[in-house]
Design brief:
Elements (H helix, E strand, L loop, with lengths): L2 H11 L2 H13 L5 H5 L1 H7 L5 H15 L3 H12 L9 H6 L4 H15 L2 E3 L8 H10 L2 H13 L1 H13 L5 H9 L6 H13 L19 E3 L2
Antiparallel strand pairs: 1-2
């Protein structure tokens, strides 16, 4: 899918239903806190307007989060997203790994967010899946399309993260199952990219992943 096709597809997918699902997924992928758990009834109620193949996985994740103590969830979250490279929540990592080319990709993501009127909080990377989903769910129609465009641009990494979380039997896999269900079926090029990433992994270089911040509560808001 080229850039023009991706933009057209993103505009078509920027529906209210998808916005609700993406916003819910962004919240459920955030670092577990008491404040997050307090929002679960609101998340469940919002999902009533989402079709089952998209909403049901998010309900399962919400049920899991609501049934366990925060310290246990926080430990599991860090073990999943911080200590396992194959479960990295940073989308550009899959395409560029620990290489300097990733810096260019991060600048492009930052520019897309700023163009949509969003600013990432200090200390956070703009390609965190939660940040991108926040844009998909909280912006205006153009902003939502910009966020979906980022998901489509990094579709191979998104699918690889979904597969890695499913393989790890992580409850957060359901968020990825839901998000991927809002996107078109994988085309030939995307399938090949997923297979290649699964076989070869991200590129490697002297820059270590430890130089990037680990999972943190995502805070993103409209520019004043």
């Amino acid at each position: 899918m080229n850039r023009v096709e991706r933009a057209a597809t993103a505009r078509r997918l920027a529906t209210r239903e998808h916005a609700v699902a993406h916003r819910a997924a962004a919240l459920l992928l955030d670092y577990p806190t008491e404040d997050l758990l307090a929002l679960l009834p609101t998340v469940r109620a919002a999902l009533d307007e989402v079709r089952p193949e998209v909403g049901d996985p998010l309900r399962r994740l919400a049920d899991h989060l609501g049934a366990r103590p925060v310290p246990e969830l926080a430990t599991d979250y860090v073990a999943t997203f911080d200590l396992k490279r194959r479960c990295s929540p940073y989308l550009t990592y899959y395409a560029y790994g620990d290489t300097r080319r990733r810096g260019v990709a991060l600048v492009e993501v930052t520019q897309a967010l700023r163009h949509a009127g969003f600013e990432v909080a200090d200390g956070e990377l703009p390609d965190h899946l939660g940040v991108v989903l926040e844009l998909c769910g909280a912006g205006d129609a153009a902003g939502r399309a910009a966020g979906i465009g980022l998901l489509l641009a990094h579709r191979a990494g998104l699918e690889l993260l979904r597969l890695a979380l499913l393989d790890a039997r992580s409850p957060w896999a359901d968020a990825l199952v839901s998000v991927c269900a809002t996107l078109p079926p994988l085309g030939g090029d995307d399938r090949e990219a997923v297979a290649r990433l699964a076989a070869e992994g991200p590129p490697d270089e002297d820059v270590g992943l430890d130089t990037y911040p680990g999972p943190q509560p995502v805070t993103i808001g409209a520019r004043p």
